[in-house]
Structures are given as C-alpha cells and as structure tokens.
C-alpha cells in the first residue's frame, strides 16, 4: 500500500530524538562489523547499554520518540542477533538473545523492552509461518535491518479480518502497540470473519491505514511508544497470511500446530522476565555508584562511620539485593536454556509435545515470579541505601522502579503463582493461552 503523505507529515511533527547524536557510535559499529560469537554479541550489547545509560535519565524526562535509540540498535547489529547467518544475521539462539535484551535493559529499560519485543515479533513467522514465509520474512527483516513493532494486545478486541478479492483486510484498534511509531514493519493479528481462526501478518508501518494516537505518556518505560493505534482497511495478499494455504484459503494444520505455534507466548513471557531483571541489575549498579560517590554516613549513630560504604545497614542491604539478583539471574538463564533447547530440538519438525511445552512454560513462569518480586523489591529498596537526595528527578534513580512497576502490570503475576501451584500439587501443565 502506498505511503500516506498526511501520516508521514504527522509523524514528522512528533518530537523525537535525533539519530545523528550517535553518529560516532554508528561509524564505530559499522567499521567493526557484526559480532561473530556469543561472547562478542554480549559485549556489543554491553557497549550499547553503556552508551544509553549515559543520558537515560535526561531522555526519560524529555519523553521524545526514540528514533535515535532505535538507530543505535540498528547500527550496532543487535536487531539481527537471532537472524539467519545466510541473510546477514547473527545466527544466535534465544539463550543469547535473552542475555542481549537483559544487557541493554541495564542501561535503559525502555530500549531493552523495544529490543525484546522486536526480537519476538521478528521471529513470529518461525513459529506460525510456512517454511517459505519464514525464509522470506527473515530475509526481508535482516537484509533491510528493519525494526518490527506489533499491534497484538490480547486484552483488546481482536482485529477483524475480511476477504476482499485476492486480499485480506484488517480493521480495528488496539490500546497498546509497543514500538509501532518508530517501526518499519508492524505485526497485525486478528480473527478471520465467520471463523474462530486467527491470522498473523507483517505489514509496512507507514501507510494510510495505520494511524497512531501518539498518546503514550505513562509513569514508566516512557520511550517505548506503547500508545494506541487504529487499523483501517489495511490489506495484505493471501500469501502473507502466516501459516495459511494460499490456494485453499485455510489454515495449514501442519504449520499452525498446537502446542508448537503457541510457544510464541512463553517466549515473550521470558522476554519480559529478562528486561525486568536487566532493569533491576541496572538499578543496583547505578545505586552503587551513587552511594560510593554521594551518599553520606548517618551522623547520629553510636558507631559513626567515616563513609557510607562503611555503614552496616548499607552493606547488608547491598549484599542481600545482590544475592537475590544472582539467584534470579541463574533461574532466568536456566529458563532460557530450556526454551532454546526445545527450539533446537523441535524447530524443524514442530513436533513438540504438550508436556514438553508445559514443562518449559513452568520454568518460565518460575523465572517470571521470582524476577518480578525481586525487581520490584530491589528497584524500590535502593533508595534506602542512597538517601533522600537520590530521589531528585535529575538523578534518575526512580526510572528503574517506574519501568519495572509499569510493565509488571502487563498480566497479574498472581496467576503465574497459581499456575505453578497446580503444577506442583496436581502435576498439571498449563493450557496454552495468550498469557501462558
């Protein structure tokens, strides 16, 4: 579909960050090329994280559309970490991809979240597409270094899909559409009229039928462009309906198989878990620097110390936070390994059993429960060991808690606890849902 001049003009008026601010880093990453090992990819993620951390507090306050930050993800190559090597991707597993998300989130939770959602959406066809679609879409995304957003919020009404000639037409609206404003492609999902069958499809973002409200101005994750979007008469050819037979106009049961296709859901739940953990780790690192440089010892003590780093209660709190974050990280890494192993074992055959899927989902549920609890505790608790001046808006320590608090409301963690209780007591694996 042709680009809408009016929509393009509107997007140009929205305050956004300037990609040229990172030109020095763009050139450096271009000269170095893509990393070629898992360790090198993690080092690249750390470099990006450090760049973002330098002014994350100021950018959070400004709340500008993160075009510069997405340009940094592009030039660094991080958008390609999971892509096939044949098309210029990194060829890494989700085990590495999750750690990359976590590293970026340490420096800036918003950008870590954007990267996580992109990696999930960019691999959607791997799960619910035909082999031809999977290869074609991976080639399109990786060769063009596209950033992918998604209008797939299950809490809203499904988009309605109708057939018009040799095309499908999407209509509807979503209250949340993470990263859409600054994306090149958007994943749409809806229900085919007259059926209960869902269809996923990739479409160009900048077109007349996709209108963003530009209304994301929330407490946390302020640079994720997660506002609402209206979808009006967006067309796709039948060939782009992921997992559907272009000749019969019916879902291909060998492609859209449950439980394999439903792995999309635990995969994104572990995306969430990793950027929660990254944000919490980032808060502890940020707080430690602040305590060392700025926090003063308490003067009204029977055992007065010369520096804050000698205070018993400060040392005790940091040690406790660190221990719990280490435990959470070990659990999250184990969950990532379990999922990556499942993909490696069954990615080609799509023959995963309900039990295998359920076991991995419970590793991920465990990781999400522990990381949610720990991240909320640590990001709030660091103020106890930094002092009242650390609450200053320009300091930016508050952004870590605000970011975690905002997204941990995505779906109630209480349901994950109940799900795990049923697994422990009844040996019951969860039924695939939009949140399990």
From TrEMBL:
Keywords: Flavoprotein, Oxidoreductase. It comes from the Eukaryota. Residues 50-137 form the Acyl-CoA dehydrogenase/oxidase N-terminal domain. Residues 1-16 have a biased composition (Polar residues). Residues 271-410 form the Acyl-CoA dehydrogenase C-terminal domain. GO terms for biological process: L-leucine catabolic process. Residues 1-20 are annotated as: Disordered. Coiled coil: none annotated. Transmembrane segments: none annotated. One of its GO terms (molecular function) is flavin adenine dinucleotide binding. This is Acyl-CoA dehydrogenase C-terminal domain-containing protein.
């Amino acid at each position: 579909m042709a680009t809408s001049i009016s929509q393009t003009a509107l997007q140009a008026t929205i305050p956004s960050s300037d990609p040229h601010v990172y030109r020095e880093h763009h050139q450096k990453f271009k000269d170095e090329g893509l990393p070629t090992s898992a360790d090198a990819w993690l080092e690249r993620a750390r470099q990006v994280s450090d760049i973002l951390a330098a002014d994350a507090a100021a950018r959070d306050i400004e709340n500008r559309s993160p075009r510069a930050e997405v340009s940094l993800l592009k030039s660094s190559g991080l958008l390609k970490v999971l892509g096939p090597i044949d098309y210029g991707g990194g060829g890494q597993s989700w085990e590495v991809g999750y750690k990359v998300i976590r590293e970026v989130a340490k420096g800036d939770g918003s950008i870590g979240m954007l990267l996580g959602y992109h990696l999930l959406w960019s691999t959607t066809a791997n799960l619910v597409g035909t082999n031809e679609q999977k290869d074609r879409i991976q080639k399109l995304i990786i060769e063009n270094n596209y950033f992918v957003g998604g209008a797939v919020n299950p809490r809203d009404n499904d988009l309605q899909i109708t057939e018009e000639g040799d095309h499908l037409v999407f209509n509807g609206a979503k209250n949340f559409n993470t990263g859409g404003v600054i994306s090149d492609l958007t994943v749409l999902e809806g229900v085919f009229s007259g059926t209960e069958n869902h269809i996923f499809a990739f479409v160009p973002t900048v077109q007349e039928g996709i209108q963003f409200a530009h209304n994301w101005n929330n407490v946390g994750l302020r640079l994720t462009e997660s506002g609402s979007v209206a979808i009006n008469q967006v067309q796709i050819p039948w060939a782009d309906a992921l997992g559907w037979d272009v000749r019969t106009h019916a879902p291909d049961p060998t492609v859209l198989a449950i439980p394999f296709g439903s792995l999309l859901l635990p995969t994104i739940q572990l995306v969430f878990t990793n950027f929660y953990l990254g944000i919490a780790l980032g808060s502890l690192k940020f707080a430690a620097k602040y305590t060392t440089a700025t926090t003063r010892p308490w003067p009204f003590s029977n055992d007065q110390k010369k520096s804050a780093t000698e205070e018993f209660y400060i040392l005790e709190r940091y040690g406790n936070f660190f221990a719990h974050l280490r435990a959470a990280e070990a659990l999250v890494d184990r969950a990532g390994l379990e999922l990556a192993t499942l993909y490696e074992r069954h990615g080609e055959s799509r023959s995963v059993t309900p039990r295998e899927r359920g076991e991995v989902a419970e590793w991920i549920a465990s990781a999400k429960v522990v990381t949610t609890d720990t991240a909320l505790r640590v990001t709030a608790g660091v103020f106890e060991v930094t002092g009242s001046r650390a609450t200053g808006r320009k300091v930016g320590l508050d952004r870590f808690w605000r970011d975690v608090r905002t997204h941990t409301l995505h779906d109630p963690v209480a349901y994950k606890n109940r799900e795990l209780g049923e697994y422990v007591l009844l040996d019951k694996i969860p039924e695939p849902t939009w949140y399990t």
